[in-house]
Automatic annotation (TrEMBL):
It holds the Pfam family A_deaminase. This is Adenine deaminase. Its cofactor is Zn(2+). It comes from the Bacteria. The lineage of its organism: Bacteria, Bacillati, Actinomycetota, Actinomycetes, Kineosporiales. Binds 1 zinc ion per subunit. Catalyzes the hydrolytic deamination of adenine to hypoxanthine. Plays an important role in the purine salvage pathway and in nitrogen catabolism. The active site is at E196 (proton donor). Its EC number is 3.5.4.2. Zn(2+) binds at H13, H15, H193, D274. One of its GO terms (cellular component) is cytosol. Substrate binds at D275. One of its GO terms (molecular function) is zinc ion binding.
Amino acid sequence: MSTYAALPKVELHLHAEGTLEPELAFTLARRNGVSLPFASEEELRAAYDFTDLQSFLDLYYATTAVLRTRRDFHDLLWAYLERSAAQGLRHVEVFFDPQAHTSRGVAFTDVVDGLHDALTRAGTELGITGGLILCFLRDRPVDEAARTLEEARTRLDVLLGVGLDSAEVGFPPGPFAGVFARAAELGLRRVAHAGEEAPASSVAEALDALGVERVDHGVRCLDDPDLVARLVREEVPLTVCPLSNLRLRVVQDLAEHPLPAMLAAGLKVSLHSDDPAYFGGYVGDTFDAVAAAQGLDDATAALLARNAVDGSFASPQRKADLR
Ligand code: HPA
Ligand code: ZN
């Protein structure tokens, strides 16, 4: 049981596909007649030994092959929601990667509707609120992202916003400016991964070219004092994922994670799990791991939780409930 179970948690950096545990992957593989390139759950779990972001993404995209139907997407997110409810989850803004599925012949609507089914059920059965954030894959062509956004017009009622993820190095945010402008016209909120592996300049580019309201990861902003000053002044939320940073070797040891420096600088930092099935911990586990590695006093834990509420796209009424 997490020490921080009673602290109301808000997840702002959580990839639906990153919640696929090996057990469910094999269940879905059997159900859909799909074969995985691993003999067993243990063998798959043993492959979770990453050297960088790309080595993780290769496995992450390979295992998505088991996700085929609306029901699969429901079952995937529902398993995450049930498990996280026990760790104090109250609100979640879920990233998903439609291009990873439509490129395999899965219907866009089955992906969105299945995930939305799980969120609707979580509202009723678990008291968890949330929404869906459609992420474009930055290492795929911009016109594919534009087509994906046009497909999303049939589901604007269930989409909270758009994001940008996948391989960072060599794939800057700038080329997606037009797609993000169109998303804003459609009334969607905007976030992007930046400053995870790519340098601080990618964070500034996401703010300037895409108009993002939150930055996912952003840890490398510390390399640029002017950028830090701007992020503090503009109160830009940064969704930090220490277990991800450890497993993808952005940091070599959790004790060396720059979270304390980010807090000391006055940045609006919050703690999230990113891809919990792959990185060894859900949101409560993330608080526990930081506490074990660095110490975490109650006031700081409460600040991290409150920053997540403030940085969320929940309604003012819901934010008041979550605080
Ligand atoms: N970074 C980039 N892309 C991703 C990640 C991440 O941490 N997780 C899933 N897709
Ligand atoms: Zn991420």
